[in-house]
Structure formats: C-alpha cells, structure tokens
Amino acid sequence: MSEAAAAQNATAQAASPLKVSLERDGRLLKLTLARPKANIVDAAMIAALQAALDEHLVRPELRAVLLTAEGPHFSFGASVDEHMPDSCAQMLKSLHALVLRLVESPVPVLVAVRGQCLGGGLEVVAAGNFIFAAPNAQLGQPEIKLAVFAPAASCLLPERIGQAQAEDLLFSGRSVSAEEALLMGLVSVVAEDPDQAAYDYFDKHLAPVSASTLRFAVKAARTQFAQRVRAKIEFVEKLYLEEMMKTHDSVEGLMAFVEKRQPTWLDR
Fold this sequence. Notes:
Layout: H1 3-15, E1 18-23, E2 28-33, H2 43-56, E3 64-69, H3 88-103, E4 109-113, E5 116-118, H4 119-126, E6 130-133, E7 138-140, H5 151-161, H6 163-172, E8 175-177, H7 178-184, E9 189-190, H8 194-206, H9 211-242, H10 248-259
C-alpha cells in the first residue's frame, strides 16, 4: 500500500464508527465498534458493519469474524431518535438486514462483550455464533420499558436460549449478568479478557482447519436456523411498523425517553 493510500485509509478509519482489520494472516476479520462509551448501533454503524462484511466475507482464506468494541461497554443499543415514527421503518430494515447478514455469515462470528450490551446491540451480538463475555457484562433487551418490542431478538433469542428464557428477557426488559447468560446458554465463555478468549478459540479450533470445509460446516449447521429467522423477522417487522407503531403507548414511550420524562400509558 502506498503512503498516500495508507494515509487515506487511516483518515477513513478515523471518521468511521467502526475499525476494520484483517488479522492472523488474513484469516480473521476483526470489526471493532469505535464510538465509546455508548457504541450506539445507529444508521452509520450499521452501514459500516454491512460494508465491511460485504467487502471481506468473500475472502477465501477467511475463517472467522471477531466483533468487539472499544470502551467500557459493548453497546447501549440502537438510536432511539432513529426509532421515532418518521424514521423507524428505514432503521428497522437496515438493522434487520445486518442481523440476517450475520446469521447467514459463511464463517463463524465470534463476539467479545464487556459492560452493557443492550437492545439493538444485543440483537447484533445474538446473530453471531459464540459470545465471549467479561464478568462485568450485562445483557438485556429493555425495549419493553419504552413500550416497544425487540423484533430481531424476538426471532433470535428463542432459537438460542429457548422460548421460556427468551420470553423472560423480552417481556421483563431486565438485564442478566454474564454468569446468568452463561447458564442460559446465551454466552459461550466468561473470561476476564473476552477478546483474548475469542482469539484463543480461533487459534486453537478455527485457524488450523480448511477455510473451504469450514464454510460447508457453517452452512450445514445454520441453514434451517437462518431460514427460520429470515421468515419470522419479516413477520415481526410488519407487526412492529404496521400495528404497534400506530398505538398511543409506543409513540408515548419513545417520546418520554427522548424528553427525559415519565410516560403516560393509555394502554392502547
């Protein structure tokens, strides 16, 4: 790479909400959310993630993606402003396209989580394969507290942790610790350094195998799961946009959050 190209790339990386790097001799794609401390999953972050996946998942030598984040927290979730009635349709469609891209990734997606991992952040994480969490991680879908529901999580969590445990998180909006998430089966490993734990897993289990055969193994294991998520996400997106967002309470919940006040529920 020329000095001019390197400088241009560095400038683009600095302006982007995402840091992209190829590691382990190009066999591992590392994607780092780079807007600490909140790492909000907004339109810009979603677009950056999609662009990186589109560019690099086609590399024949690639064996895995590592999704991680700068700062003390993985993500506080999606942008509430972008979920208001006049913009939520585009936001949901782009977020769901990203979730499906991760669900249908041809290589395993490893995720390293520290601190808060909430809302749209957890939806992105749950679309991956293996979650490595720090002991201080807190994972949750708090959308119900704003009088909306979490569409992608409604599709992903029952698949990952079973119907009853998924309903607990989706209906209560509570967060769970890394240890509780481990017991649920949502988290794969709890480690003081989740990034290093993900690297160790990659080095021991994924780096030595054939990248070509690994892609067949991923497709074989995930095809029906991906088909179920894709079919259901279309239904819940329509439910969200065409029914729920026409209710008083959903708009009131979002407005109250933005205006930093208590909502007034009319139960309709």
